[in-house]
Fold ABC transporter permease.
Amino acid sequence: MIRNYIKIAWRNLQKRKVFSFINILGLALGFGCSILIFLYANYHLQFDNFHHNEDRIHRVVTEEHQDEIEYEPSVPPGFAEVFKSDFNYAEKVANIFIRQDWQVDGIGNNSNNRLLEDVVFAEPDFFQILNFPLIKSLGNRDFTEPNVAYITTGFAKKMFGDHPALGQTFVLENKETIQVIGLLKDIPTNSTVQGDIFVSYESLKNYSSFAYSKTWGGITSSLQCYTLLRPNQDIAHIEKTLIPLVSKYRSKSKNVHRYKLQKISDVHFDHRYGGINANLLWTFSLIGMFLIIIACINFINISTAQAFSRSKEIGVRKVLGVSKNSLFWQFILETFLISFFALLIGLAIALMVLPKFNELFQLQLTIQSLWTYKVLGFAALLLIVVSFFAGSYPGILMARILPTLALKGKLTQKDTGGKLTRKVLVTTQFAISIMLIVATIVIGKQVNYAITSDLGFDKESIVMLEIPEQIELLKLKGLKDRLNQIPGVSSTTACLSSPGAAYNDWGTSIRYHNRPQYEEFSISAKLADKDYLNTFNLKLIAGRNFFSSDSITEVVVNQKFAEKLGLSSYEELIGKSLEANRGSIKATIVGVISNFHDQNFQSGIGPVFIAPEKSAYNELAVKMDGQDINTQLQAIENRWKEVFPKFVYKYSFLDERVASQYREEQRFLSMTKLFSGLAIFISCLGLYGLISFFLARKTREIGIRKILGGKVKDILAIVLQDFLKLILLAGAIASPVAWYFMNNWLQNYAYHTEISWWIFIVAIGVLLIITLLTISYQAIKAATANPIKNLKTE
């Protein structure tokens, strides 16, 4: 029986090659995209799921309660020791300190190797909390010692080649010689903590006295605390008992901390603390489902339309005694066969585009990723669901056709699924396409708004150089002097970070002038030399710039600072005192500058002060005239290497760095563009097939109209008017839905574009034009055909 069904199904596919091709191609594109989206979602859902005792591992994070709540993936350096000694909630507690792109130099036979690597300073218990297996180690050395490290097998291969890594040494950041005492398995790509070099925490005192200390005066996102809790702990109770630590260790600060326990499985998905937005996974999954639905709608529409041409076949089978049940399962098998071929092609499509997909989303998926049990199981489930979803309704319609009507050729629209049903399905396709087009336009508009808007500072033709930590001020001044002598270089400044940078951001509580208490808000410190304002073209609106100094005695603040204080005039600030960092900074306000975006558009403009602090400088900004960039860049590199010959030269353009802050939005935009195009293409495939059947049924009517004097444009209008009405109806349905979701998305940004009315007109217009192009060729061909031939055909 099944063999017979397969033969009949295969013959029907061969008999209607064009429509079989349309169905297979539409489903294949839907399958391919759904599989890629599943790989993307599965990759992120597997983050940090390889650790033992996963349900008991937590990261301790901080809610900073001031006039607003800010979220930091860190705690003060002294927290871990207190949590370990004063409480009995945890089996293990460990701090780590993360640094990215640190220079690592080989020694001896490996002296030619100079690499930039992510380095993690870790306390010994860290490896008892997270599952980073140690393959082998030196038995006579311990991770509690200073200047020792565990390294991954991947880094060992890069640095030491085929030679044994244990016992070897390397130099970290041109400072300390570190010995390798352990070899770790490579860290999985779906791990939140990444690094190839894990240095003992005792070594940190030579690199960051603040992170190594036990102070409670501040926090940095580079310092993180992980804990393995004892079984059956009440998280809410623990967080409540941690509240008194604030008054005990931070009684003078208005920045009120709330220490929270964040499950390891939640770290990757909590965007408040630097994780990804989990809504993206749901959005992409929903888009994948939309594509499958559109492809299934194509199949249903074309299949029900084919009922006219297959009616005699069905009538004969029923007269010969074939039951409704048999006809239903025959059609399901045909659908399954088409879906199976489509799935094979979809897998091939996914395989071909996988490298580009990895590049777009910065993934490391391999060909083997497609052949896992999860992916194949998902593909099989998709095949079964699509086969039944797409095949059931046409199968039921075919099975219920009356043989007498079928053999006499008297079937009506109602007998083959009804005109209303097809209109509802086509309208659904159009509505989905319009929503995706609207999303594409809004996301693109927001990204363009963020990148091209006036940020309050210059970002064009400015190159940012990473300078070695804790360098001598004399060397830095010498480098600035050499760079300023390069033709085309107009200004240079040493700073902690550039304007608009969300990284290296240092916030502190402040006390203004003679006010008895610290303010309820914190202020962002942009530590830099006196050339900062000129290099970034920050506009001074009151007072003057600060003078050069080795310590902070004068500061410049922005307009927002005056607004936060409730002052009516910026001149009121001039000459007033400012105390920050729990009293270690005492300075006079000498100038006020215009507001600028000190972070990105997701955050509002906050209060800022700018002051010189030579020990905090991480970067050197060089402003060029942009006339001969390549020559100027080469000259900058030569001057830099003259001053710092032992350090790797690293630079980036400020405008590219600003744009990179919206990388997630740009990826979202790329994905939406791709899927919008595919949704429209798959819909057009269905429309092409549907209009073919429509015109075949209208052949006699078109011939009669032409004989009676009907013009081509009139006949064309008859063919097109139904589809135009459906597009307008779809636009009316999709527009409010798209507005609701995109308006909610824009609320993530403190500064965002508006959803203009023309966006919906453009979306509907784009779909309208594409639809007209899809069906007009066949409609014009039918309208201009010889009417006598058409009448003879029927």
